[in-house]
Amino acid sequence: MEGLSQAEAFARIRLLRSPNVGPVSYRQLLHRFGAAEAALSALPDLIQRGGGGYRPAAEDRIAAEVQAVRTAGARYLFHDSPDYPPLLAEQDGAPPILTCRGDANLALRPCVAIVGARNASAAAVKLARMFAGELAEAGYVVVSGLARGIDGAAHQASLSGGTIGVIASGIDVAYPPEHADLQEVVASQGLLLAEQPPGTEPLARHFPSRNRIIAGIAAGTLIVEAAPKSGSLITARLAGEAGREVMAVPGSPLDSRSQGCNQLIRDGATLVQRTDDVIELLTGFQGQPRSILREVSAEWGVLPEQTEDPADIAGLLTTAPVAVDELVRQSGASAGAVQLALLELELGGRLVRHAGGRVSRA
User: Which CATH architecture has domain 102-282?
Assistant: First the structure.
């Protein structure tokens, strides 16, 4: 990106790949120390104070990753790059660094996510193609996860107008294998995004992370067909928590693949039956969705520059997630001191971050 030296870009990648550094702690470290190179220098001491025995990621490992990204024909997108997806950048837990292939400018256009069942019915696949094709003709970029069923149909129908595929693996790994050709077409004609380092095989824990990117990029998420407890419902919930439109296509109560969508509608998602319904909801979207399926997440401020000693809050943590403002109240320390203590505990491997800005003991 413009204004970012090669050394600082390398340091940012190394910082993010260091043990126990996640999106929140990464941003706090950058804010506190001003640059990734300075944060890396301070990291060993912070880790030690947090009770951990880890070291920052090795330089040769990061050099190998950078070479793998180049070999795959991809590049890095940093959180403050002008072509980083703007709606995604608004989210506190957004990936600080993505790898991409294709036209990153697609994410600057109005985007809508279409997701649904992998073992989708023929009728649902037909509907997904209809919605995706008509939305692409109307100027929207269709975002999905390149999975079987609804995802694949949405990508195929929107290729001519622009589509974004978000994968749970590294940028150089195709999953599912039967979508290898489709993934290549999306990368060459649209945009392919990955959060995981190159060479990473998709694991179960990677898919919710992938889903938060899909929900974060788009102004609204449309679920065409989904069974209860499916990954598509995770995407819908994340979209609601992000303050985006959540839309669902109703289905027969006799078909288990429709139960997820019907439940979403009961919970406040907007019922849609035609593409015009989606366009009406998304036209002029300004962050005030009409669907009410959302939870208010605790806001995470940046770690302030201060010299105050970190609060001793390790004893207040249990394995049950708790809101950070509750820790501030119980400890009597300032918000900045509590956040610094949490950062050190996370770097030491003693803290787990949860949705909604909550934390617990590891």
Answer: 3-Layer(aba) Sandwich (3.40)
